[in-house]
Structure formats: C-alpha cells, structure tokens
Amino acid sequence: MKNMKKIIYIVLAVMMIVAALPGMGAEAASLRIKDKSYGYYNRKLKSNVATIEVNGLKKDQRITKGTVKSSNVSVGKVMGYTRRSYSSSTAAVDSKSKKSSTSSYSYIIRINVRAVGTTDITYEIDGTTYTTTLIINEYANPIEKMTITGLNSGNDLAANIDFSKGYGKVSYSSYAAKKVKFKITPITGWRVVRMAFENESTGYEYSKVNYSTTKKLKSISIGTVKATYDYNISATLVDDYGNSMKVQIKLAAPASTNIK
After folding, report:
1. How far is Cα 107 from Cα 85, in angstroms, rounded to an integer?
2. pTM of the predicted model as reported, rounded to 2 decimal places
3. Contact, 38 vs 241, CB < 8 A?
4. Which of 23, 180, 230, 260 is least surrounded by Cβ atoms within 10 Å, i.e. has the fewest?
5. Three-state SS for 137?
6. Short-list 221, 222, 223, 227, CA closest to 176
C-alpha cells in the first residue's frame, strides 16, 4: 500500500511538472499562415499595393531578414514588411479575480502590384520557409448601383463616376431636397461595411458601420440638402478576400468648383 502511494505521488508530481512546461504544440499551432491571398491591379492608378498577413506569432518569433521574396516580380515585387504587436488586459475587480494581460504579434508584408497574374511570396520563420500564393485580378468597379434620392430623379449615378480613382463628383439642382438617402448596391463578392457623410452647412458628420457578413448595410439618410452647400459622402467596401476599398463622393452645390 505504501509503495502504491509513492507511485501515485510520483505520477502526480510528473503531471504537475508537465503542466508547468510551456505548451509548445499549442504555441506552434497559433501561427496562422494563409495559403492564398488576393489583390487587384488598377491600370489607372500609379501605385497598386497588395498585402499578406502573418498572424499568431510569439514574442520571440520574427521573419528572418532577407528571406521575403517574390517568385514572379513582373506580377508583384516585395516592398517591405512591418511587425505589429497587440495587447489586451483585464483588471482585477474583486479579491477573487486577478489582473491578466495577453499579447499577440503579426506581420504585414507589402507587395507592389505590377500586373494581373500569380506569384508565390516566400518567407522564413524559425528556420521554416512558408509560402503564400498571391493572386492578382483585374480591378473592377465594386459598385453595381448608386442612388441619391432627390437627385437626377433617383436614377443610378454609378455609371457616371470613375470609382477607379477613388472619388467622384455629383452636382445637384438648386432646389432643396428633403429626406435625401444615399444607397449603394455592391457587386457579388463585395459588401458595404461603412457609410458616412459630412454636412458642410453644420459641420456635422454622421456614419453607420456594420461588419456583419449576414446583415447588409445598404443606405444612410442624409436629411435635407440645401443648394448652397457641399456634402461629402464616403463608403468603405470589403470583398470576400478581405481587401477593402473606399470611395468618396462630393455632393456639390451648383456653384461648387472643389472637384472637377
């Protein structure tokens, strides 16, 4: 019986030592590498940039200097990479709780996009080489339809604006339009996550945000539009791959010359 107790004590001691050791398997599994990443090539822009994210690194894990390379520089050339850190903490609120904090680390690799095509981006971490295939598609206007009630009889305005440059201008009649609503219908694969407008007459800015993949953000109410003022409208869209695009529209009074 005594020998049995000794064995039990030894087993318990070993279990306590193992529990105290760092969880190497769990830490290794936290490293998140994407097999594929997507970007766009816009021929009207002087510079096109795509990004690749590497998440879940430990504090002492870093990309080995000089190992980030592109297999096809005619499609994308590595510009550089940035290490980021995130931290969060929980305060102790009573005698039974303890203050705790956690940290996580990631990298953003920036690629100068030069053409439509595919290139493998390789990088080394802790002696292991990882590969993310970067697929570059031709830029396409992500907005299928855009309307502003009270303007142009509520007709579609998207076809009249070159969103590839990131901004556009819409002029409106000299009469005051009430209950004006700005509405966007994105193409398949894109969704609106933020809409905002700035009222020049009051200096007030209002925005709506919704990052949900199930509930769609479709419109934002602007209120009464006065013919002597400009209104700045913006919308941020994201696609199924995590790429984002922001468009800005100047709702310009008849005499405005801010954007041509």
Report:
1. 9
2. 0.69
3. yes
4. 260
5. strand
6. 227
Contact 171, 150 (CB under 8 A): no
Tell me, rounded to whole angstroms, the distance of Cα 182 from its chain centroid.
23
Residue 163 has φ and ψ, to the nearest 5°, of: -70, -10
Rounded Cα gap, residues 195 and 188, in angstroms: 18
- H or E element that contains 4: helix 2-20
Predicted confidence band at 194 (pLDDT cuts at 50, 70, 90)? very high
Asked whether the beta carbons of 68 and 164 are under 8 A apart, the reply is no
Residue with the two structure tokens 């969103």? 163
DSSP-derived letter for residue 154 is: G
C-beta atoms surrounding 189 within 10 Å: 11
- Cα–Cα distance measured from residue 93 to residue 109, given in angstroms and rounded to the nearest whole number: 40
Tell me the C-alpha distance between 17 and 8, whole Å: 14
Strand runs labelled E in the chain: 32-33, 36-41, 48-57, 69-70, 76-90, 100-113, 117-125, 128-138, 143-148, 167-171, 177-186, 190-199, 204-209, 219-225, 231-239, 244-252
Residues 6 or more apart in contact with residue 174 via CB below 8 angstroms: 227, 254
pLDDT digits (tens, 9 = 90+) for 29-73: 488 999 999 999 988 888 899 999 999 999 899 999 999 999 999
How far is Cα 20 from Cα 8, in angstroms, rounded to an integer?
18
3-class secondary-structure state, position 60: coil
Q: Is 182 exposed, middle or buried (0-12, 13-18, 19+ CB in 10 A)?
A: buried
